[in-house]
Amino acid sequence: MNRKIRILSPQSISKIAAGEVIENSLSVIKELVENSIDSKATEIVVTVKDAGKSFISVSDNGCGIEKDELHMAFIRHATSKLQDDSIYDIQYLGFRGEALASILAVSDITIITKTEEEDHAWELSLSSLSDEKNALLNDNTITTEIQEKISNLITPKNRAKGTTIEVKGLFAPTPNKLRFLKNNNAELHSILQFMHSIALAYQNCNFKLFSESKLLFDTTRDQFDDDILKQRIIDIFGNEFTNNIAKVSYTGFSREIKINGYVTIPTYTPSIRKQKSIIFVNGRLIHDYSIICFIKAAYSGLIANNLKPLAILFIEIPLQDVDVNIHPHKTEVKFSDITSIKNAVVNAVREALSSPYIAQSLTENQLYSGFDTSYNLSNEYEARDSYKHSNQDKHESTLLPLSARYPIEDFTAMNKAIEERITESQLDDKLYYFGNPICQISNLFIISYNSNTDDLFVIEQHAAHERVMLEKMKDALLHKKKLKMQNLLLPISTEISGTEAMIILEQHDTLLKYGIKIKMMQDKIHIVGIPIILQILPSVSPHEKVIQILNHVIQNSALVKEISETAIIEIYNEVACHSSILKGKSLSKEEMCILLREMERYNFTAQCNHGRPTYIKITHDFLLKIFQR
Fold first, then answer.
1. C-alpha distance across the termini of the chain, in Å
2. Residue 428 confidence (pLDDT)
3. Does the keyword DNA damage apply (predicted)?
4. Mean pLDDT across the chain, nearest whole number?
5. String of b and e for 238-268 (b: at least 16 CB within 10 Å)?
6. Looking at residue 514, what DSSP letter applies?
7. Is 325 within 8 Å of 279 (Cβ atoms)?
8. What is the CB neighbour count within 10 angstroms for residue 355?
9. Interior CA angle at 81 toward 76 and 87, to 5°?
10. Among 38, 194, 473, 521, which residue's Cβ finds the most Cβ atoms within 10 Å?
């Protein structure tokens, strides 16, 4: 039988369109809450019954809707937020004019709204089977008669300025959709997570969530805190999480990209296993896998590969540089310059994590459970520069000799350097974050004390020295024009295609900077020079490493600098691990002091090269609490 092509009825079209926007109770709440935010509301209350399946109410104190425009709010693609010439300059969370029409297509709706100018509020109720509802969902059939009927349905009501929208019988017109909803606990959990996220972004607004008349979430008291965002993070994620985050505050070179928020410190393993990073772009909550990858990339060399850092980031970029109109839920966006976004995110997170003053601050639970691994960020940012730079020239390290005055490839003196005599100097521990060393325990842990802050530190000497050495080598690499190269008597030859040869030859100068010298002869490429650092460790095959670098360059020639640096730093990691102070090495107080000063001088020294903590901090207040003083 031949099937004739026909145009669907307006009702069917509306239900299909609604399915793109409204998937569950959360979809309804998200659209209504975002509308409330767009209306400049400062109070938003969400109430649900049966996890929103039977009843949803969103009430706000926003600008309201005028009586004459009330019916227009339910017509698809009718909106006050967008002009025809501003489709790529969207300043609101909602802009398509689809939300209320989509909700109306799959439920019954009552709206009560009042503007500042009107004497009282107005109420309009639309049931799922009414002619008025069908007419609104098909804007081509709104006749004068229908308009009069809708006007007759609008009745006066008492309420303050703002809007309340009640949704009943979700998916009653499309009962098959109910089969795809999760159980009530799962649906309610999703709603609560959204409320948490949106509350973080809009700190000038109070949010409440009720379920079956029970208050689940309330931000009202946060308005009295100096740092509303920090207090909301405490309320949502708890003190343990909040004590293990680093503040992000970044402005790009062009000042067009700004990133603020918080990220978990490298040595912290979140107990909230299912928690995901929360990302906002221009105030819009988004789910972007690329940004999550950029965040993880910023932790490279700071955490183990199997660990997942968490972030709460607010990214601000010019409106014209991001397209928010690519997904029905508006949770996915497209950037005009993804490379700039990558650089900004990586730099912002890396900058936040660079402080050496990230320490484990013990809690009672950790004390009584064998010091479980959870590490606390100390709030020492303002003092960082004074600690980091005070008198550092007066106490030049002889314990760790690799610096600008040493060739970066000369590692032979490292193991002997610690044996060298160090000029004794009396240090004022008020000038230094870690204070002065007191003693060494088990020839592995250094105990130091800062008399100015009354903080006690336990430093793991091997982990700390390993990180310091790596940072010194990386610093030297950054400031060096070219790595030292070992010329080969017998070149390494490998066959490659003509296209691959062109890629390699185009990157000749960059590769040479990293100590790789190549020549092309016939259909073979000859490696005639390699970085001298590759000769340092017997566990590393210089030939295999260079071939590996070239293969990576062929696959992605645009990243030749990153590929080369990553390969060199991998070698540095192993050099630092094998050459640093070992467990069992007895240190004098002068040697311990030099190590502490180096930890203060370089970035990322709060964790070793494998992501483990290098020290913990025990505060005076913590000791008082433990001893019930």
1. 88
2. 53
3. yes
4. 78
5. eebbbbbbbebebebeeeebebbbbbbbbbb
6. T
7. no
8. 21
9. 90
10. 473
For 483, the token pair is 């790595």
Tokens 């008399």 correspond to 451
Q: How far apart are CA 153 and CA 123, in angstroms?
A: 8
Cα separation values, 235 from 30, 216, 238, Å: 21, 12, 6
Structure tokens at 24: 């569950």
DSSP per-residue letters across 420-433: S--------GGGST
Question: For the chain, percent helix, then strand, then coil, each to nearest 5?
Answer: 40, 20, 40
Q: What is the pLDDT of residue 384?
A: 43
Instruction: Write out pLDDT tens, residues 333-367.
Output: 888 898 899 999 999 999 999 887 775 555 555 55
SS (H, E, C) 342-381: HHHHHHHHHHHHCCCCEEEECCHHHHHCCCCCCCEECCCH
Q: Is the dihedral of CA 580, 598, 427, 395 positive or negative?
A: positive
| 25-38 and 184-201 helices, crossing angle to 10° | 20
SS3 290: helix
Amino acid at position 493, single letter = S
Q: Which residues, including other chains, have CB under 8 Å from residue 457's CB and lie 6 or more apart?
A: 359, 434, 435, 446, 447, 448, 449, 450, 615, 616, 617, 618
pLDDT (tens digit per residue) in 28-54: 999 999 999 999 999 999 999 999 999
Distance (Å, whole) CA 450 – CA 619: 10
Q: Give the pLDDT score at 398.
A: 41
Cα(504)–Cα(518) distance, rounded to whole angstroms? 9
pTM of the entire predicted model? 0.72
Give, in order, the Cα–Cα distances in Å from 390 to each of 387, 395, 496: 6, 10, 54
